[in-house]
Write a structure and sequence with these properties.
InterPro entries: SfsA (IPR005224), SfsA_C (IPR040452). Helices cover 27% and strands 32% of the residues. It is α/β, with parallel strands linked by helices. It has one domain: 3-Layer(aba) Sandwich (Trna Endonuclease, Chain: A, domain 1), CATH 3.40.1350.60.
Length: 78
């Protein structure tokens, strides 16, 4: 996240993409209870201008198919 934030500060466009391996996912949120350091870093990156994207995907034995985007919910726990 630090490198992505540095890129934004230098004028670049930066994004982080989460692929959710469930076709029924309705939203994405970082798990602050499991990894509070990463959750805070992701929140800080989003506040800095790093785009946080999340998409459903379909996994098959020989391929991964990108699905539709889901909303990103910024919710820190703890």
């Amino acid at each position: 996240m630090n490198e992505l934030m540095a890129a934004v500060r230098e004028g670049y466009d930066a994004a982080v993409l989460f692929l959710i391996q469930r076709e029924d996912a309705r939203a994405f949120a970082q798990n602050g209870a499991m990894d509070p350091v990463f959750a805070r870093a992701l929140e800080e990156a989003a506040d800095c201008g790093v785009r946080v994207l999340a998409y459903r995907c379909r996994m098959g034995p020989d391929a991964l198919e990108l699905g539709t985007p889901v909303p990103v919910v910024h919710a820190l726990a703890g």
